[in-house]
Amino acid sequence: MSDASVSPGVGRTSILARERTLAAPGFNRWLVPPAALAIHLCIGMAYGFSVFWLPLSRAIGVNQPKSCGDLSLLVALFTTRCDWRVSDLSWIYTLFFVFLGSAAAIWGGWIERVGPRKAGVVATACWCGGIAVAAIGVFVHQLWLMWLGAGVIGGIGLGLGYLSPVSTLIRWFPDHRGMATGMAIMGFGGGAMIGAPLADMLMQVFKTNESVGVWQTFLVLAAIYSVFMLAGAFGYRVPPHGWRPEGWEPPSGGKSMITTGHVHLSNAHRTPQFWLIWAVLCFNVSAGIGVIGMASPMLQEIFGGQLIGQPGLRFTQLDASQKSAIATIAAGFTGLLSLFNIGGRFFWASLSDRIGRKATYHTFFILGIALYALVPTAAHAGSQGLFVVSFSLILSMYGGGFATIPAYLADIFGTQFVGAIHGRLLTAWSTAGVIGPVVVTYIREFQINSGIPREQVYDFTMYLLAGMLGLGLVCNGLVKPLPKKWYMSEEELAVLRATTRSTNSAEAGSFRIGRGGLDIQFALAWTAVGIPILWGVWMTLQKAAALFR
C-alpha cells in the first residue's frame, strides 16, 4: 500500500499508530476486505488443527504410537517417553476458543483505541509466535509447551486478529455492513479449508524415519502466515469521520432498527439488548457446534452399509475395511459442510443487508428448528440426500450467525465501539464451545450405555438442539431499539473522534478501478487472497466428491 493512501501530516508518528492508517481522499474502500481476509484466512487454521492430532499421537513411535498404558493428563503434559493421546492434544482446540473469546473481551477496547494495524501486528506475533513455540514443544516433546504456545498465546492472537477488521469494515461499508463483515469472517471459516491440506502436504514432505514432520510444518506455516498477516495489517485503512459512500444516505427513523447514535463500551453490557443478542449468538452457536461435532459419526452410524451400497448392514456389522471406506465418504461429507459453513457466512450476512439483521436471525431459528427436527425423520426413512441437504443448510446458518452478528451490534449500538462490544459478545462463543459438545457427547454416551441402537441415539439430541434454537428465537424477538438515554452526546463523540478527523475533505468512496484505468493494488490484493481460496475450494470439492460416488 503506497503512502499516498495515508493522510498527510502524520509522518512523525509511529508506523503502527492509528493516525498512520487514516485513509487519504480517494482511497478505494475495496482494498480493505482483502486485507481482512489475509488475516482471517490465516487464523482460521485453528479449525483445521485436528489434522495434526494423529501424526502427533505417534511423534515418538513415528509409525506406531509408543503407549505407556493408563497415562494421566498431568503425566502426559511432561512426559518425554510416551506418545500423547488424541484426547490430550484436543485440549488445544478448546484453549483456542476459550482464549479467543477472553482476548476479544479483554482487549476489544484497546483495539478500538490503537486501530486495526497495531492490533493486526500484535495478532500476527501471537498467532505465528504461538505456533513457533508449539513447534519447540513438539521438538522437545513437551505437551505443556504446545498448550502454552498454540493454545494460550495462539488463542490470544485469534481473538485480536478476529476483531481487528470488524469496526473498520463496518465504517467503510455502512451501506453493506453485513456483506463487508461476511467477507472477512468467511475467511475465518475458510482458513482450515486452505491450511489443513497444505499442512498435510508439508508433513508428507518433512516426514522421515525419525520424525512425523509436524514441528517443521509448524515453522513453515508460521512463516507463511506471518507474511500474509503482516501484509493484511499494513493494508488496513480507516475512513475519516463523516465519510460516506457516494450517493448513500443513512436511514433515519421509520421502521428501521439501524440507529444513528452510538453507545459507549462501558454502557453496552448494562443494556438488556446486549444480553439478548449474547443469548441469540450463544444458542445459535451451541446448536451449530453440537451438530458439527457429530455430523461425521451420525452419517456413518445412521446409514452404515448404505453408504457403500450394502443397505442391509448396520454400522456395528461392518468389518474394518468397510468402516475405512465409509470413513472416507464421511470425510467428504465434512468437507461439503465446511463449504456451506463458509458460503453461508457471506450469503446470509449479505442477505441481512436487505431483510434486516433481526429477520435474518428469525430465519436461522425458524428454519433451523424445522431442519433439526427433520434430521431424525430423514435418518429413519433412509433418505441420505435429505440428511445431507439438511445438514448443509444448518451449517450455512451456523456460519451466517457469526458473520451477521457484528452488523447486528452496529445496528443497535452504533459503530463507535462496535469492535469492542463485539469482543465482549464473543464470550457467548466460548460458552457455546462448552455447552454444545458437552450436551451432545454426554447424551450420546448415556443412550448408548442404555442399549439404544446407534442409528437412533441422535434423535433426542437433535430435538434438544432444536429446543435451544427455540430459546434463541424468543430472545431475538425481544430485541428492540435502545432508548435515547444510552447514546453518547455529540460532545463525547467529538473527543473520541479527534484522532480520526482529516484535514482534507472526505471524498466519496464508491467502487471504481482506479483513476487512470486498471487499479494494480486492487488486482494484486484480491489475487493474493483469491488464489488460496480457490485452491482450498478445489481441494475440498475433491474430497466431497466421494460422498456422491
> Level of helix content?
55-70%
> Per CATH, which architecture of the largest domain?
Up-down Bundle
Strand content: under 5%
The strand count comes to 0
Q: How would you describe this structure to a colleague?
A:
This protein has 549 residues and is mostly helical. The chain folds into 2 domains: 28-244 and 518-543, MFS general substrate transporter like domains (Growth Hormone, Chain: A), CATH 1.20.1250.20; 258-489, Growth Hormone, Chain: A, CATH 1.20.1250.20. It is built from 20 helices and no strands. Helix 1 (32-43) packs parallel to helix 20 (520-544) and helix 5 (91-114) runs antiparallel to helix 16 (418-425). The model is unreliable at 7-11 and 500-517 (pLDDT under 50).
Short key terms for the protein model shown above:
Growth Hormone, Chain: A; single chain; 2 domains; 20 helices; 549 residues
What is the structure about, briefly put?
Helix content is 66%, strand content 0%. By secondary structure, the chain is mainly alpha-helical.
Question: How are the secondary structure elements laid out?
Answer:
Layout: H1 32-43, H2 53-56, H3 73-78, H4 86-89, H5 91-114, H6 116-140, H7 143-163, H8 166-172, H9 177-206, H10 214-235, H11 265-268, H12 272-303, H13 320-355, H14 357-380, H15 384-413, H16 418-425, H17 427-449, H18 459-477, H19 490-496, H20 520-544
